[in-house]
Amino acid sequence: MPAIDSIALHIQSAGKAYQTASGAQPVALEPVTTVIRQGEFVSLVGPSGCGKTTLLKMCAGLVKPTSGAITFGASGQPVQPGGYGIVFQAAALLPWRTVMENVLLPAVILALPMQAARARAARLLDLVQLSHAADKYPRELSGGMQQRVSIARSLLHDPDILFMDEPFGALDAMTREGLNLALQNIQQDQGKTIVFVTHDIDEAVLLSDRVLVFSGDPGRLCADVNIALMRPRTMASKKQTEFYQAADFIRSSLEHGHTNSGS
Amino acid sequence: MSAIEKQEHESGRSYVSKWYPPKEGWVSLLLALALLLGAECAAHYEWISPLMLPAPSAVWLALVDGLQNGGYSAHIFSSVRSMLAGFFFATVLAVVLAGVLASRPWLEGVVTPFIVAFQSMPKIAVAPLIIIWLGFGDLSKITIVTISCFFPILINTLQGLKIRDRDQFELFQSLGASRWQLFYRLRLPNSMPYFFVGVHVGMIFALIGTVVAEFVGTDAGLGYLIMQSKAQFDVPGVFACLGLLMVLGVTLHFLMKRVEMFASRWSSDVSRVAV
Questions:
Q1: Which of A197, B2, B40, B255 is most buried by its number of CB atoms within 10 A?
Q2: Rounded mean pLDDT of chain B?
């Protein structure tokens, strides 16, 4: 297991409120303070509209917090563009580019050497089991396949930190399990930091070192659960006591947080 | 067989087949031939004065004569050259300006009132002024064509260059794309369907602009030929030129459609395709 010693993301009272025309300020996310260490796999779990995606995008520097700040490492700045990979909830593929060309987009924008990038793209498409679709256009693919292309794209420039917003949501169980394990392998082998949004509690427990549980309306961090399962984890890990203890705790935190918010 | 057809078959009556309408293209052709025949008869039996509607045969003779002896081809080339040149300059200027305005909202706000004001004025009314400034000849013709078709291309391209997908925009932001990369890799390809709407409209205005410019101040081109024929009361000659203009417009439209098919393959109307 890679050493988790230095801090990747400092999240200091980062919150988001939206200004509406009437002057009211609906709070999307109440201030969150926590830390994400390098090489850590952290999942964000919670009901729809609890601000998980907002927090993810604030960590990536795409959305500015209205209170507090999120900084990367020792730089005191948010994460540098080009220094991270991101998978959106909707695949966001460019419809005029083929699958291969979409995966190569980071190499084009960041001006990376194309030959190496092409080889890497082919390997990534193989990883997400879409090598046969390399010359197809996004409109010819199903939603799940498009999302897999998006995952391959996020890994092309080999970023140290990945932000993933429900990347496996549209996939069938078999593919999902395969990609869960593949993602774990990548993370363990290369020591990547991963911030991962999911609705699936079991998936969060399987993949993560830590699970941050959010309650909804307004979004609020209500629990920070350490997952003590041994790595590498497999589907068999789901049968361990620690697994369902963690999953139960998260489930009850969600319900507790739900009742607490009074909605 | 459906229940009704089965009944009819069993009762001994002949099988009633479904009437399939003939293919549209053939009907259009038939209709065109019928109209030409009608016009020919009208002229022959003098139902309509030949000054108003000459016989298609007379128009055809005028056309053939013009091409062989009257130097029509030089005039056709003059019109086509000016029209394409004007259209090309208008397209380049419009795309560049749209590109600048699309990524600079403040500038767009400043320039928009001017665009609205100038767009509302019929540009061909400016043609005589251009002749005064630039004199007779190709330069003023091309200028008139350029200003005629500039605005539709600008306005439609500007609309197309707006980024409507938040995720696509954030994707480019996450990679630290420069303003140029954002334009070239996201805005421009995305704008193709809108751009071609502008182009199709622009083509029509370009043709109008060419003919009006030729009416007002040149000695070459199909518009000039029309004026000349008019002066000689050569109505078949005028119709021959109109026919040539029609052919020109249709050919260019067809060519543009082909280019559009290629550039906008990714963005077809899904409600039209049966899967």
A1: A197
A2: 87
